[in-house]
């Protein structure tokens, strides 16, 4: 075999190898579906304890609880509850209970609590005012009267020790003369007109719609 023939043979083999390499590159680079998903990709790093996936935290991934410093008491159990709501200057706070329902009627129990450090004297009716969306006072009449949830026996002087309570029944009533109902967003409640009021939002119930309200006097026990 002459030298020229051997050179042409080596050139042809090199050309074939280059052509085969280019063909494989074109197929794998331009036709992704020919490569199984995930092959050739760099895997994501394993999740660490400081970055849990999907919002889940497993106990074995949590860092150990540091030991208390010398002289500090050991902490056990859940963290302490947030401090209670501050007691107003009057020493009396009014809270509203769950909604009571009857045929075409609604009512809630109001509880007056002496949250101060001195005895608190109460003699009369709660102060109740309906409020609108922007906190404006609405023309909803509040009557000192009973309802089917309990009679009003009138005021009685009570002296509540610290922590002592008194109760009243607040009922929604409709009158024959009533027109369209007023929609209120909250009630402003206080033990008395000058005792410092707090706002109680009316959410998730039809008690937002009202004509008039009936309220019984403060008593040690609820009226029957």
Summarize the structure.
With 224 residues, the chain is α+β, with helices and mostly antiparallel strands. The protein has one helix at residues 3-30, and strands at 92-102, 105-114, 120-122, 127-131, 141-144, 158-160, 165-173, 182-183, 186-190, 198-201, 209-210, 212-215.
**Residue ranges: pLDDT <50 for 5 or more in a row?**
2-12, 14-43, 47-84
**CATH topology value of the domain at 92-215:** Immunoglobulin-like
- The best one-word shape is globular
Mean pLDDT: 73
Please give the CATH architecture of the domain at 92-215. Sandwich
End-to-end span in angstroms?
125 Å
The tally of beta strands, per DSSP, is 12
The amount of beta strand, in percent, is: 25-35%
Reading the helices and strands in chain order gives HEEEEEEEEEEEE
Helix content percent band: 10-25%
Rounded to an integer in angstroms, the radius of gyration calculated over CA atoms is 39 Å
What's the tally of helices? 1
Oligomer: single chain
CATH class of the domain at 92-215: Mainly Beta
Structural class: alpha+beta
Structural notes for this entry:
Helix content is 12%, strand content 28%. A hairpin with a 2-residue loop joins strand 1 and strand 2. Among the domains are: 32 residues; 124 residues, Immunoglobulin-like (Sandwich). The protein is globular and about 45 Å long. Strands 1-2-7-12-5 form a five-stranded mixed β-sheet, with no helix packed on it. It has a three-stranded antiparallel β-sheet with strand order 4-9-10, with no helix packed on it. It has a two-stranded antiparallel sheet with strand order 3-6. It is built from one helix and twelve strands. It is α+β, with helices and mostly antiparallel strands and 224 residues long.
